[in-house]
Structures
1.
Amino acid sequence: MTETQRNVILLGAPGAGKGTQAVRIAAGYAVPHISTGEMLRAAVAAGTEMGKAAQKIMESGALVPDEVVIGVVRDRLAQADAQKGFLLDGFPRTIEQAERLDAMLADGGRLVTHVILIDVPEDELVERLAGRRMCTSCGKGYHVVFDPPQSDGVCDVCGAELHQRSDDNEATVRSRLEVYRAQTEPLVGYYEHRGVLKTADGGGRTPDEVFVCVEQLLEGD
Ligand code: AP5
């Protein structure tokens, strides 16, 4: 792996495997994994004012207001570990967020170097989200069919119980996919126009196979 600085955005529909690939990228390239979904879920679990406001929105499948998420990302990108590269997972999700990200990076003389779109057919997305399970303690993700734990309902890493995310029910998944098509998919054109968008075929392949493709894209200019 080269020493080039990588300021990476992972783009893709709910269930495309952003979080799954992000763990591999963060380990392989020593960049912090910044997931707005995880930060919002942490705020919900902690019962902060932001968490209380975000909870209902997230359970409906809608997006949390731009101002809230932009503030969270701005603070996170200002931290020391994000100065030599970062990996954004789940942000930006609207054109407004993308423009504001560009502006905040430009202030520090930085820019987005890679946008990786993980492309997965819709029926596969639904199957992945329906079978996803998360560890209630360490947050590791599983799938009941594609990536099951060794012991049913128990995390391999820390032994805590697994649970289903509250937004992984059928109705909310449908709404999240609609929101993605309407509000987030326009970012494909936005980043294509800038010449930084690359697409990884994420359907019908194992996470490790998808990662081989992602690595090739990150090694390119
Ligand atoms: P967020 O947490 O970002 O959810 P998401 O974008 O819907 O993405 P997911 O986490 O559901 O999927 P993923 O692509 O990470 O897939 P994963 O790797 O887990 O956001 C949640 C909510 O927070 C939003 O709806 C919104 O309300 C709010 N929010 C967050 N960011 C926001 C923002 N910027 N602005 C406004 N609101 C925001 O994989 C899924 C499953 O598939 C797993 O079980 C996994 O094991 C399995 N899997 C992965 N890869 C493969 C493979 N190759 N083959 C087979 N199975 C696989």
Note: The mean pLDDT is 95.
2.
Amino acid sequence: MFLTQFMTKGWRALATRGTDKPDRFRNVSLIWAAVALAAFGWSVSAMLQANLFESGPLAEQLFKPHAPELWSRLAMVCALLCLGIIGQRVLARRRRVEAQAAHYARILDSSWTEIYFFDGKSLRYVQTNEVARRNLGYSTQAFMQLTPFDLMPELDEFQFNTLAGPLRRGERDQVVFETFHRRADGTDYPVKGRLQLHTKESPPVFVAIVQDISERRAHLAQMQRRNMYDTLTDLPNRHLFDDRLGDAIAAARRETTPLALILLDVSHLRDIRDTLGHRSADRVLQQIGNRLQYVLRPSDTVARLGGGEFALALPAVDFEYAIEVAQRVRKELAPPFTLEEIPIHVDAHIGIVLFPEHGDDPDILLQRADVAVRQAKREKADYVIYNPARDPYSLRRLTLFGDLRHAINQGDFMLYYQPKVNIKTREVASVEALVRWRHPKEGVISPSEFIPLAEHTGLIKPLTTWVLNEAIRQCRACKQAGLNVKMAVNLSAGDLQQLHLPDEIAKSLAAWEVGAHDLVLEITESAIMEDPERALRVLARLDTMGVQLSIDDFGTGYSSLAYLKKLPASELKIDQSFIKDMAHNSDDATIVHSIIALAHSLGLKVVAEGIETAEVLEVLGILGCDTAQGSYMSPPLPSDKLIAWVKAQRVTLDKVSYAN
Ligand code: C2E
Ligand code: MG
Ligand code: MG
């Protein structure tokens, strides 16, 4: 029964040879069939030799006297067959193992990660894949001489045991590591990998699956750079600039040295973008970035904060040096930028702030530098050093803003009057009304401080209404005292946008029975330029009414001849910045001379303001200036002193003696 079973299996195995039956089963069946045949042959041969079979026709045929030998040969053949099959099976197995190994090697080689097998005892590599060999530059043979310590210069025995220990003890399936791989040529690259215990049998085999992360690292570094640097100019961006400025402030605090921050805003960028396109504007920005680097010391930082805004952090720099840098920046940006052979001019407005005077953290310094830049833009100045008194956003300003509204309702203001004296006749031609705020806590506050605040918040309108009414009332008082002086009132940009302003003035003039020709309105060019069309409409109506117009602070704004001609003005006031030093500064004297000539050619009377010395008054007389205003004649006076001063005024051409 047992035998037949194996015979059947053997037969089946033979019958199914070459089919898809597993080889293993076929070989086993054949071996058993051969063994069975051999056993049968030997048994029969042994039985024949022992004459166990009776003679008969079949026995005679089968078991002739030479038959035992035949049977024993048959058994021999079966044994040989059996051996052959066993040999073939061993060979097939080896081939299968080799094929399997080649198959695994192909799989390993097709992997895009580095794979290393190493002996857990000697730590020598036993197998590596193609990527590992290629990345590290070692041959398969060379690898067999290496251990992980040769590939990973940062790895020491302690670290290896810390990694491999939990795997050996079965506490973990894998451990992750990140290190450097050293190539055969001595160069390194960053890797990240997993270490696993491949086989536990002695000796244990570890497998390390490792990935070259240089690209990922480079990408990460690029991302970080992108987060820190401006992609257009390759300069630090706002983020990095904040960091650097923070560090510079910390160092300046430690070393008790000053620090300057320069902010510049490039103008005309929009024009370049609109006419030549975005790429041209970008190229100009890149060139600006390059030029700015020329003005820097190695310790300085220049950054592009966005748009046309650049910032310079200058450690250990005082305010004089900061001004020098600002001037150098303007000089660098002065030559035109050439784009497609078109010369492009750009202008920059510069704001300067200093640590610790103007703030002690990057945010505040940048915010204040921005305020200074805006001021530079408004005033068309080359650069402006931050002045807290002129910052509409400073804390004091915000507090004052709250108080200002209240003060307007309460009428906490007063007017001072400064005489404008005819240089030839020494007669007081007019007086200028200058407002003061009587603050309950701060005392008297100057208009330079609160007028910009009132202008920013719209409170200038009710304030101007009050000033106009009060000044016209004072003009009436002068007239009643027998003094024929005109009254000058300052107007702001916001006032010039009020189309009903002429009606309001007319009402006030009528109420105090003062003629329109006795009122002079002082306006600056920049106030007109905020909305020139509307301002000109208002001014034209005032002119028709007979109110006189005076152009204030001439020389600081646009100083545009075209507009000057359009304005219905009768007077031009040269800004005090040209007057103060003109006796000693020939440039100022030349400018003043030209302005006087220009104004006269346009039929305008000229007032020089800010006269502080007899010398200046004398020079102005020689240059043909018509009217003088300044502390040399009289500072602004309160209303109760004005009439007395004008009355007491006795001036002779030879002996200049102004009594205050
Ligand atoms: P402004 O109209 O140019 O007035 C002349 C300023 O120069 C006044 O300053 C005056 O006090 C000052 N000043 C006069 N003589 C001298 C001098 O010899 N030396 C020096 N250093 N300064 C002199 P104040 O009164 O502080 O007014 C400053 C500015 O505030 C005025 O400049 C004007 O623009 C504005 N302001 C004054 N009152 C009003 C007002 O009622 N409404 C408006 N919108 N602005 C006003
Ligand atoms: Mg004025
Ligand atoms: Mg002025």
Note: The chain has a mean pLDDT of 86.
